[in-house]
Amino acid sequence: MDKTWFHKAQAVVLFVLFSVLLAACSAGLNESPEEVQLEPTATATVFSGRATAVRLNVLGIRRVFANAGPLPSGGGADEATLIQANVPGTLSTGILSASTVGQGNRTFSDASTDNLVANVAGTTIRGDFIQAEAAAQCPTGANTTPILNGNSQIVGLVVGGNTVRVTGAPNQRVRLPGGLGQIIINEQIKTRNGNTGSITVNALRVVVGGVTQVVVSSAQAGITCTDAGQPGGPGGPGEPGVGELARGFGRILCDGRCVSFSIMGGRNDEGSLWGKGLMLTDPTRGLTVKGQSVTGYRVVDANTRVITGTATVNGRSGFTYRVTINDNGPGTQDVIRIEVFNPQGQRIFFCVERLDCGNLRILNPNPNRVAPPERERPPCNCDD
C-alpha cells in the first residue's frame, strides 16, 4: 500500500471528525441564555450585634465587663450578666447585663449598669442606673433600607459631686472639672450604605486627652436587608414562643426596699430553651440570686411571658425562680412578678411591682406582633 495515500486518507478522516466536533460545540455555545442560565441564589439577611456593660481603659488597666457578642453574620443570640464588678480605686458597680439578638428581620442589643462609681482623671463619676438600647430592623415590602433606632436611660448622674441634668438628646456633652476631658451622654452613631445599616448607642463615654477612658452601657445593632420577604421564627404565629426572647432589667420597690434585677430567657429558632435567667440583688435583706439555667418559657398572652429556672442564693444551690414579665411599653408601665423558692419549695422572695426604672421587652421576629408604644421614662425613685 502507498504510505503517502494512507497518510492523506488518515488526515481527511481526522479533519472530518474535528469538523463534526467543532459544529457540536458551536451549537452548544449558541444555545439561548434562558436555557443555560443558572437560577439566582437568594441572599440571606446579615446580622451584626454586640453589647457591653463597661469597657475600661484607665492607667493601663483594660477590662471589659459583661460582654455579649459579636453576633455571627447568620444571626443568633448572646448574653452576659455579672452581679458586680470591682477594680480597686477605679471602678465599682452593681448588676451588669448585656445581650444581643439577631433573627427574623431585626437585630436588638442592650446593656445596663447598676450603681456605677468610676474614678477618671481625679474625678468621681456616679450613676444609679445606666442603660442603652440599639435596634436595626428591615422594613416590610420591597424597601430594603434598614430602620435604625436607639435610646439610653441615665438616672442619678453625678460628676465631681455635681448633679448632671440629662436632657435625653443624643450626643449631650458635659466637661469634666478642670477641663481635662468630657463625657458624651447618649452617644448615637448611625451608618447606612444602601441596604446595610448599623447603630451604636453609648449611654456614657468618658474621654480624657482625646482618649476614651470608660464606656458605660454600649449597644450596637446592624443588619443587611434583602427583598426576599420578612422572615420570622420557624413556626411563625402557630408556635408561640419559638424564636423569641423575653428580656428585662432595672429596679423595683419591694415593700420599700430597692431591688435590682436582670432577667433573660426564651426559645431559639429550633425551639430549645436558652438564657441564664434571673439575677437579683436585695441589699436590705442581704439577698443575691444568680440564675443558673432556664427550665421553662411560657406564652400567656400577647404581652406576658413566664420564665422559670434554677438559681443559687447567696452561693447556695438548689433554688428555683419564677418570673412573670408584662411588657406594656418601656418605663414604669411594665410590670414584673418575681418569686424565688428554696430547695424545699418554700417561697423566700416575692414581689409584684411596676418598674421603678429600666425596661421589659419581648423580642419576637413575627412581624404580626405590634410592640406597645414607647413612653417617656421617668427617673428612678428608689435608691439603695
Can you offer a commentary on this structure?
With 384 residues, the protein is mainly β. The chain has two domains: 46-224, no CATH class; 236-363. It is 8% helix and 57% strand. The protein has two helices and 24 strands. It has helices at 3-29, 33-36, and strands at residues 46-58, 61-68, 76-82, 85-87, 91-93, 96-103, 106-120, 123-137, 147-155, 158-159, 162-163, 172-175, 181-193, 196-208, 211-224, 244-254, 257-267, 273-282, 287-301, 304-313, 316-326, 335-341, 347-354, 357-363. The strands form three sheets. Strands 3, 4, 5, 6, 7, 8, 9, 10 and 11 form a nine-stranded antiparallel beta sheet that branches. Strands 23-22-21-20-19-18-17-16-24 form a nine-stranded antiparallel beta sheet, with no helix packed on it.
Write the layout of secondary structure elements.
Elements (H helix, E strand, L loop, with lengths): L2 H27 L3 H4 L9 E13 L2 E8 L7 E7 L2 E3 L3 E3 L2 E8 L2 E15 L2 E15 L9 E9 L2 E2 L2 E2 L8 E4 L5 E13 L2 E13 L2 E14 L19 E11 L2 E11 L5 E10 L4 E15 L2 E10 L2 E11 L8 E7 L5 E8 L2 E7 L21
Antiparallel strand pairs: 1-2, 1-15, 3-6, 4-5, 5-7, 6-7, 7-8, 8-9, 8-10, 10-11, 12-13, 13-14, 14-15, 16-17, 16-24, 17-18, 18-19, 19-20, 20-21, 21-22, 22-23
Helix proportion:
under 10%
Biggest beta-sheet profile = 9 strands, antiparallel
User: What is the total tally of β strands?
Assistant: 24
Q: Which term fits the overall shape?
A: globular
Q: Strand percentage, roughly?
A: over 45%
Give the averaged pLDDT, no decimals: 83
The radius of gyration computed from the alpha-carbon positions, rounded to a whole number of angstroms, is 29 Å
Q: What oligomeric state do these chains adopt? A: single chain
Question: Which structural class do the helices and strands define?
Answer: mainly beta
Through-space gap between termini: 114 Å
Uncertain segments: 1-9, 11-18, 20-42, 229-238, 367-376
Write down the secondary-structure element order: HHEEEEEEEEEEEEEEEEEEEEEEEE
* Overall tally of structural domains: 2
Provide a count of the helices. 2
